[in-house]
Fold this protein.
Amino acid sequence: MDYDVIIIGAGLSGLAAGIRLAHFGRRVCILEKHGRVGGLNSYYTLAGRIMDVGLHAMTNYVQRPVKSSPLTRVLRQLRLSYDDFQLCPQIISRISFPAKELQFTNDFAFLVQEIAEKFPNQVDNFLKLADSLHGYDDLPQGGKSVSARQVLNSFLSDPLLIEMLLCPMMFYGNSQENDMDFAQFSILFRSIFNEGFARPQQGMRQILQLLVEKYQGNGGELRTKCEVQKLHVCQDQVVEVQLAGGEAAGDQMAGGQASGGQAAGDRAAGDRMPDGQRLRAKTIISSIGLPETWALCSHWDTTQGEPRPGELSFVESILITDVLPSQSLGFENTILFYSDTDHFHYRKPDDPVDLSSGVVCCPNNYQFREQVSKEPLSGEPLSSESLPGEPLSRETMSKEPLSEGIIRLTHMANFDLWNKLDKDAYRIWKKHCLQESAKKAERFIPGLSQHIVVQDMFTPKTVQRFTGRRNGAVYGTANKLSDGRTPIKNLFICGTDQGWVGIVGTLLSGISIANKCVLY
């Protein structure tokens, strides 16, 4: 079967690229290994509750469409409206170190005032730093990497302030140990501090349903449970995409044609695509990661070395409580970044988990909106294989989305140590880390452990298993491919390994590759 474009991976960047290309009449097929779209930003069911994976906050928030903002560019390119995302802004967040704390909101002036009070001799140079960041493009650029620490030291003389500024930037998008590229720092600084945090009213499920509906409405084809086994390369071109086989007809959703001209929905239930089926396309876009894409290729010019997988991964505990943290536990922060030492250590730990720093996120602590419209969302209900449960409606969204308390705890972790554990040891360590992580959070949320009714944890092994990211490296390889161009002429990379992070950044990545490498 021939397509104009095949996209590997139905994460945010893959879906965004698909929407853009299908809108302009390209015949597009997205291949997704798992039964659910979203990749690093998906969701799962926990004790009857739909829980987000990856989503702490959506950065780049603006109160209304601002012409030059990254969020506005995403909406314009994908032909979406501002209200489609149903964004609820944060209340207040905090950076906590032993010596000092800084609070911030989506009002940059609030952070400036905090720095003026806590670091009075640094505020003028902080403002100079902030002004200098406006000269950097919002898009990842190629060229030599510049140390963020080096640049920060040229503006600021207080090491503690430098560490406190780096902490949220690193936790929310950095794939390097103890330092980061200054261009990426500048993008994250503006997305977090100048613009801010928000959350879709109904979490990631809402965003994913919107994107899939838009893609299918544009005529795009989406195949879930459809793993790519190999990319056959000849004369520096991908000539065929070989599937691992075993794709169920029900996983191939509306918007495309099955092989032999038969509509996807016409295939009998339980029928399967032929094992090892091969597809062809003029262009291949991969959103699954640079090293992971390299591993699929039958040939790749490695004169400049083979892509190295990232080394930084995390554990995340999800705690459901029988009380709302702000009302009963006194925890009013949306997100809290902490370090037990005034010199922040961001590196692969020597132990399975490093609890000396982390992130405490409370999804309850957003300014949720009330709505009265009962108009259903556009589009047909999605397949249960892609988004479980009933399709969302405006009436559903008018209800309080989080009637129970939710706390998410994130810490750096060592993939190698988790990967060596046998099944019993893995279960024991997971239980131990859950308990210790919750105990650590008691420092900020006294009495938390007494109110936990459901808990879960995902580890670096979980990340690798469900996203395919080698070493469970959430932010991918440290060596980014900023222009998305691989040594194979018709194969391009989008997503995290292009240097984009966050929901808005990842969507922009897919859009940029669709525009630069296919449409224009």
User: Anything to note?
Assistant: Residues 107-196 form one domain. The two ends are 25 Å apart (CA to CA). Residues 423-441 form the longest helix (19 residues). Residues 246-273, 371-401 have pLDDT under 50 and may be disordered.
